[in-house]
Structure formats: C-alpha cells, structure tokens
Amino acid sequence: MLQNLSERKEAWKTTLLFLALVVVLTSPFHYAIVNLYPSRIYVGAIMWCPALAAFITLKIKGRKISSLNWNWGNGKYIRLSYLVPALYGMITYLLIWTFGFGGLANEEIITEWGKELGLFGIGTLNPTSIIIIAIFLLGTIEVIRAAATTLGEEIGWRGFFIYELRKFLSFPGVSIFSGLVWAAWHWPLLLYYSNNVLLEFTTFFIVIISMSFIMTYYTFKSNSLWPAVIFHAVSNVYIQKIMPPLTMKIEGSEHWLGENGIMFAIVTSVFGIFFWYRGIKEKL
Description:
Layout: H1 5-35, H2 40-60, H3 75-98, E1 102-104, H4 107-116, H5 127-165, H6 171-184, H7 187-193, H8 197-222, H9 226-246, E2 247-249, H10 262-281
Antiparallel strand pairs: 1-2
C-alpha cells in the first residue's frame, strides 16, 4: 500500500478510469444479450472487455502493456489454481448428493456424452468409463478452451485492477472491493438468467467475493496473472459443464444447485474465509 497521498490519489484516478472504460466497453454487449439474443459471441466479447479497458488505461497513463505480470510464475500456484476450484466444485456436489438435493449420475447426460464422444461403439464401455473419459476431456481440453475467454477477464481484473487497488487497500480490502465490482459487472446477465433474482444475486455475490479472496491470494503469491486465468477456467468448467449435468434435479431443490445455488455459496465462502486468513497471516 502506498504511503504517499498524491500517489494514492493517482491510483484511485487510474482505477476509476479503468472502471469507466469497462462500463463503456461492456454495455453494448450486455444490451445485446438482454435485448437481442444471449449469443456466445456476445458473452465472449464481454469477457474480453476488462482486458481492453486495462490496455487503454495503460496507454492513457503512458505505461506499457508489458508491465502486467505476464510471466508464468511458480508452477506450484498454477497446479493449486487447478486443484482448488475442482475441489470446491466436487465438494459442492458431494454435499448436494449426500443431503438429497439432487441425484447422482444423470443417465441422459451420460448417454449424451457417450454419443458426442463416439464411445458407444468402443467395446463394452460402461457408464462409469464414459463418465471418467468425459470428465478427463472436459477437465483438460474444455479448460484450455475456456481459458481463451477467462484470459480476457483476468488480464483486466487480476492482471491490472487488483494491483491498482493494492496501492491504497489492504489484502482484504482488495479482495472485497474487486469482488463486489466483479460481481456487479455481471448484473445484466443475472437479471436475464435468474429465476429467483434476490436469492441468486445474494448467492452469486457471496460466491464471487469468496473466489476473489482465493484468486487475489494466488495472484499476489505468484506475481502472475496466469493462476487466476486457470482458476477461473477450471471453476467455470467444473461448476457449469461437469458437475451439474451429472446431477439429476429434484423438484423443489433447484435453488441449491448450480453456480448461483445455495450450496456453492456455502462451500466457496468457507474456502474464501480460509484464504482471507492466510492472506492476512502472510501479510499480503
């Protein structure tokens, strides 16, 4: 955190400029999703707006794009940034299955995965084998594909934004403030897709702020934006593409499921509190 008042004011101005640019760049695509069609093209464009806002801000401020932490960093944090979101995704759905909020092994999705991967014509592959192969491919190839869009977000949020915030806020302050902004940035999509707006807004903000603590921790520990890129991609794949399809929905328990579900908010908040504690203890 900067001690010089004028430098802190300059950091605030840079932060506000970046956020203004994010809003300006994102708004047309949010409008298109809500009023035209929720195309993946519009979603992909939105996810690259934070990067573009960061690049423009750096240009205006006379700073180089190369000043961002492009280095790969310690491989330990890359590995952990894969394992942690995979772990909290699996814990979330193990709890959902255990408490009866959803059923394990959706036969329809297993059949769909088998057909999509052409596995039904290979010997005597059973449903378990299909699940293992599909999860392996989703957890690798799909994560790489997802990283192409999460990179756009993370160049902006974790590559640039949190480092500006760090100049005038503590680690908890950076994590909470960046989490609030990151969550609020999604609000048009939440309004479009939500069935229970109040509940899903609440759970989503809890999830995003909790994730923010973890991603800020790994970013500052590694001095690299790549752990956040991997973390974000893995989290999206496990909580959107892998675990929910495997779960059979039970009527009346829908609000416990998915990335805006109560269970995911509970699990990620526990992880977030743990990393909050670690960040303070390690004086980040």
